[in-house]
Amino acid sequence: MKGLAISLVTCVALLSGCSGGSGSEGTVIDTTLNNTSIDLSVSTVEAGTVTFAVTNEGDQVHEIEVFAGSNTVLPVDKNVANVSGLTLIDEIEDILPGGNVRLTLDLPAGDYIVICNLPGHYEMGMVTKLVVTG
Ligand SMILES: [Cu+2]
């Protein structure tokens, strides 16, 4: 999925055609990655265009993956969360320490979980929830 992640970053950087052609970031959620948590500035947003403005404040490489679902307690296999039953909305991998990336998505109402699923990171607490209201 690395190619997809890179093209997404490029797309966001160009601010064109990423979200139905509006170029708008919609509701911006400040998203902080630490080595033991993912912190969102809000836990609920309205449906529509949503941008995760991600800062990696940890000292390790992290990633952000957004899945549809409400259950943050997932089975763990070989140090990674087993997400096989979940629908991946989108992701950005390889976010360096101190790095900033933006992930713009069009989110319908529903429950979502946001995780970093590098080996061991889910178990360290890098998971959180987002509720999108209709
Ligand atoms: Cu991580």
Question: Helical segment tally?
Answer: 1
Number-wise, the strands total 11
> What global shape is seen?
globular
Order of helices and strands: HEEEEEEEEEEE
CATH architecture: Sandwich
Radius of gyration: 14 Å
Give the CA-CA distance, first to last residue. 30 Å
Named CATH topology: Immunoglobulin-like
- Say which CATH homologous superfamily is assigned: Cupredoxins -  blue copper proteins
Mean pLDDT: 89
Overall SS class? mainly beta
Largest sheet: 5 strands, mixed
Number of domains: 1
Present as ligands are: copper (II) ion
Write out the strand line-up for the largest beta sheet, numbering strands in chain order. 3-11-10-5-8
Query: Unreliable stretches, pLDDT < 50, 5 or more residues?
Result: 10-21
Helix content, binned percent: under 10%
Q: Report the portion of residues in β strands.
A: over 45%
CATH class: Mainly Beta
Helices and strands in order:
Layout: H1 2-14, E1 27-33, E2 38-40, E3 44-46, E4 48-56, E5 62-68, E6 76-77, E7 80-81, E8 87-95, E9 100-107, E10 110-115, E11 127-133
Parallel strand pairs: 1-4, 3-11
Antiparallel strand pairs: 1-2, 4-9, 5-8, 5-10, 6-7, 10-11
Bound molecules: copper (II) ion (CU).
Copper (II) ion (CU) is lined by residues 62, 116, 118, 121, 126.
